[in-house]
Write a structure and sequence with these properties.
single chain; alpha/beta; 10-stranded mixed β-sheet; two-stranded antiparallel sheet; 15 helices; 14 strands; 37% helix; globular; binds iron/sulfur cluster
Length: 455
């Protein structure tokens, strides 16, 4: 076995891979009801859930040695700020110790924001961190599921963290989960982030919590400490979903609602991860594993040094090894992990392979592929109907934006096209009554149809 601290000699190493490191494991100060990651504490029953200093050094060293000129160091949890600031100051020292000449390092952290203060935010600003902040919308939507261990809503505490971040002018990315409680409020949520918070970068992540018939009643209580001492370990199996999970068609409508607002007024001003990813797919570039043809280059590191195939597969069957015993780069390059990534493509059902939006969807994440196609083949994504609706809806504007990009013009010019198209549309629909069927053929009355939903 190769010594863990020596450079890897593998010849099959992926040139670039991404690690989500969890210095506190799954431990969090909150108790968000849909957060099945909380159940992963069960993997380490005797742990103190703190990454040791020697492991931190080993991790930073292995990562910087294995990566090319640009490296991303990403902290996540649980709640990573439960490690105190000294842990992150130490990580910066280690980065300086092991960084190669010319190697640039980007730092990111995903947090619930409730522990942030001026000191934290000054540190983030000093080291140019990109901070991902979890917010599910305005108070009444955020507090549905994002609660503390006493079941109290956390909106005020998150807003306090947001203000510290804004005051220090820290780069921020809003991460909003989409679930049964907020999915019907797309525009309200988007405007709250854009206008209420002044956010310019955001991403929307669907909540899909799966399980079998025995697990779901327990899972519906939540994955944290409420209600039960016999909290199950969440694994990616089962064909039912919790009541908090988003429904597929709802997700499609949610994404379309936000897209229709964004594409008319915010292109080039507000960055929505999925829209950017979809535009990338239209020019043959894939930046998000979920919608890439293959995956396997985004692994998760637990506080013990255990490395897992993906953040969504922190479970015994997907443990690749421990970086104290094996080089991280070798674990990522292992045949087992390469197969994990390739399976995303090779296990696609025929229904996906023949799908008109395969180029943008690529079947979605394997963790969500637990329903059957209309002709009975297993392995279709639970979110298929919503994805299909969204990718069809945006295909034409995305094609136009891709053309603008290819002719070295800003995609934001699409907004002019919409001004013209919307004016034409207004004139056309003015000729028919508001209670008449819309000329777009959707079957809706004109007053309920904006004429662009061709999906
Ligand atoms: S399993 Fe899903 S989340 Fe994990 S790397 Fe693959 S596509 Fe990404
Ligand atoms: S939209 Fe549905 S059928 Fe098409 S690639 Fe995605 S999951 Fe497969």
């Amino acid at each position: 076995m190769q010594a863990p601290n020596s450079p890897s000699t593998t010849t099959q190493s992926p040139r670039y891979f991404h690690v989500l490191a969890k210095p506190t494991g799954a431990v969090c100060n909150l108790d968000c009801k849909y957060c099945f990651f909380l159940s992963k504490q069960a993997l380490y029953p005797d742990s103190d859930f703190r990454m040791a200093d020697d492991l931190l050094e080993l991790y930073i060293r292995q990562l910087l040695e294995s990566q090319p000129a640009q490296v991303s160091i990403a902290w996540q949890g649980g709640e990573p700020t439960l490690m105190d600031l000294d842990f992150f100051r130490r990580s910066m020292e280690l980065v300086e110790k092991y960084r190669r000449p010319g190697q640039s390092v980007e730092h990111t952290i995903q947090t619930n924001g409730t522990r942030l203060d001026d000191e934290w935010c000054a540190f983030f600003k000093q080291h140019n961190f990109l901070v991902g902040l979890s917010i599910d919308g305005p108070r009444q939507l955020h507090d549905i599921y994002r609660v503390d261990k006493g079941g109290r809503g956390t909106f005020d505490r998150v807003m306090c963290g947001w203000k510290f971040l804004k005051t220090q002018e820290v780069k921020c990315n809003i991460l909003c989960t989409v679930h049964s409680g907020n999915v019907e409020h797309a525009i309200e949520i988007y405007r709250f982030f854009r206008d209420g918070l002044g956010a310019r970068v955001m991403q929307f992540i669907p909540i899909v919590e799966r399980g079998d018939a025995n697990l779901i009643p327990l899972a519906n209580i939540g994955w944290g400490l409420r209600g039960t001492d016999s909290r199950p370990l969440y694994v990616q199996s089962g064909k039912r979903v919790t009541q908090r999970s988003v429904q597929s068609e709802q997700l499609g409508r949610f994404l379309i609602g936000i897209f229709d607002e964004w594409v008319r007024s915010d292109v080039g001003k507000v960055y929505v991860q999925l829209f950017d990813t979809t535009l990338g797919a239209h020019v043959g570039q894939y930046s998000l594993c979920v919608f890439s043809p293959t995956c396997g280059d985004a692994v998760a590191l637990e506080h013990t040094g255990d490395l897992y195939s993906c953040d969504h597969y922190v479970e015994p069957d997907f443990k690749l090894g421990n970086i104290r015993e094996s080089q991280m780069v070798d674990l990522v390059a292992s045949a087992r992990q390469r197969k994990f990534g390739a399976d995303k493509q090779t296990t696609l059902p025929k229904y996906c392979r023949e799908c008109e939006v395969l180029y943008a969807c690529n079947g979605g994440c394997p963790k969500d592929r637990f329903i059957s196609t209309p002709d009975g083949e297993p392995g279709l994504n639970y979110l298929c109907a919503g994805y299909k609706k969204f990718f069809r809806h945006v295909a034409e504007p995305m094609r136009l934006m891709a053309e603008l990009l290819e002719s070295n013009r800003p995609p934001a010019q699409i907004m002019r096209w919409y001004v013209i198209e919307d004016a034409k549309w207004k004139a056309e629909t003015a000729k028919v009554g508001r209670n008449e069927p819309c000329p777009c053929g959707s079957g809706r009355k004109t007053k309920y149809c904006h004429g662009r939903d061709r999906s």
